Amino acid sequence: MKAAAFSFGQFCQAFRTIVRQALEGGGPPRDLSKLRWLYAPNLLSFGYALRTTLSSLIALGIALWWELGSPQWAALTVWMVAQGTRGKSIAKARWHMFGMVVGTICALVLVGSMPQSPLLYIFWLAVGIGGFCFVGTLLPGPATMTNYRIHGMRASGFTYAIIALDGAAAPDQIFHIVMARATYITLGIVVETTISSLFQYRLGLRARNRLATNFVQALDGAVPALVRLIGGDRRAVANSPGVFTTIVGLSDQVEFAEVEMGEHQHEGDHARAALAAIAVLMSRGLDLGALLSMPESQGKEYLQVAGEVASFLQTIPQRLSDELPVAPVLRDLVALRATCTQLAATCLEQEMIAATHPPIDAVQESSLSREGQLLHKLGAILDELQQAIEQFEMSRNPAPHDHFRYPMRSYRDWRMAFNNSLRASVTIFGSGLIWITTGWTDGLTFMMFVSIVCALFSTLEQPALATQAFLHGTIFVVGMSGLLDLWVMAQPTIYETLALCLAVPMLVGGLAFAWPPLILAAVAYNLFLPILIGPMNEGRMDEILYFNTALPLFLAMVFSMWMYRLFLPFDPDGLRWDLRVSILRRLRRLAQHRTAPPMTEIIGRGVDGFVRLSSMTTDDGNTYVRDRYVSGVLSGMTIELNLLRLRVILGRNILPDDARHATQAMMNRMQQFSGRYGGQYGRTARAASLAVEYLSRMEQAETNLSVREEMLRVLASLHVIATELQENQAFFDASSPYLDKAFT
């Protein structure tokens, strides 16, 4: 006893010392920057947390006033729908309502069809949620939590699960269960959208300004890469992954600005087109980078105009962000474009003189040809920049009766959709088997939480990481709810006191959600806090009910995370290989005689693959493989674009027969390009190099100006294809599926 008392006394003394040092400022300084979101949030974050807390408490109060059976679902719906901006909240509310209707109908069909067949019932519940995940994966937009089209399918699976599992216990009461759940969800959506609308001021104007700011932000990221590229850094575009990621992210935000603007004249379509033009601009830079590898190509004229273009590019973001007229910018741009055209024509003229007036200087002729190709590509970059700025201006000042359309593009991955569906179905069916075989009293609650997690996260590319963050939030909310249920919530007897008790924990959850590193953990905290509190008009959440809810919740998170890591886990090598095979397949199809896809689709698929690779996180730390794949994806997009240009040139039928046959021979070789077994890559790369050599000799002997100009276009594309195949052999030589040769 003395030893115990002595130990406790030592503990108290040490604790007093720590507190005194903290108050007096003694000891080493403590880094509290990670808690800044809590004690010093910015105004927007605090405003979001405050209005969402008020909305949740109002929805909860109305549900209690109406004496609904499970009022916590109304507060939960508010936290599911609420977002940082008005456009996001409205878009998510619409799709959540749509998902609720679809899930409700499917749950009614399930309960009415097989109420007395437990195993079959669980099977079709798992298949239904898997089907929602399958459809959600194929919907337009990235597989993120901010894609609210996918959220509609997540809401369908969420509603389908809670109604079907409640109906399994009381199938004769299914109509009342459906009406109750629909009432909770509708109440939460209506309250959240109403309250959030009161916090908005000059919404349409701010949305239009945000569209302009997004374009300037994307251009500001692209300009440094282009300046370095023009200056001779051929890897500048490939070493700037953030540019493409920013373009994709900002393009996804346009639809929310359109929602906020209400009645609009296609400003969003012009904004999407302007951002897409920046992606095309970067792809033109890839062509220029490939041509910079040619020896003796950067002559005096190119270096001079390249310096002028670089200086001009550096001033554009500032000139556009000042809300000044774009006419002076376009005038300067057109003047630079004319200079490039004139210098390219001068190079062609001097090349013709060198080819037709002996003595013929082959070295000078070749140098002039290469410099003309560079000037032509530089002019193409300025063309794309002009289109981007024009679309930007039309998004700021739309013309009346504008009918321009630039819809969102969708690039479906059927294999990923099937894997996501199968993973969700097997996980839910496994939780149902655990419930049936163990006879666990709270197994139904366990299965409901597993179904919710699968509906929310199975459409993500890395659901195991998302579930791990969700588990962290679950552990925290279990502790917070235990404190509230077992101590605080035993005291209040009226709703006003209950609201005061819940206000601070909910406000903390809202602040955490507004801090990007804590989003997923905050989602778990905000969703499960009302469930674990379980407010009721008569009674309260006692310790037995609390533990019987918290334990299934925790075990459901652990089981889901374990299943995501065990069954069809995230395989970065497999995903990279699938992307690689897809690129090689597109190269073969593009070289064949079939309908060619538009240039925007080629660039869109390339950028989508680039962003997926850049955001792919692994624990192996192998940056070599990742960099080779990133470079290969950009190289594949560059080759696709040049194959498309060659098809256009061959369709014009201006080339001489010998040049046409040489170009077509390379295209025929590309039609068989699989990259497998080593020889496939070697023959294709050799065919491209031979075509370049053959057309270079023909171009030097050609005396017809128009034909020579056409041959220069072909040579430029062939140079780019041959250079990309040579410099990215590790990617295109697919005899090594996962770039294993890099480790030997």
TrEMBL record:
UniProt keywords, alphabetically: Membrane, Transmembrane, Transmembrane helix
Transmembrane annotation, as ranges: 46-66, 95-113, 119-139, 182-201, 417-437, 443-460, 469-490, 510-533, 545-564
InterPro entries: PHBA_efflux_AaeB/fusaric-R
One of the Pfam families matching this protein, by short name: FUSC
Keyword Kinase: no
Keyword Cell division tagged: no
Record-given protein name: FUSC family protein
Origin species: Acetobacter lambici
Organism classification: Bacteria, Pseudomonadati, Pseudomonadota, Alphaproteobacteria, Acetobacterales
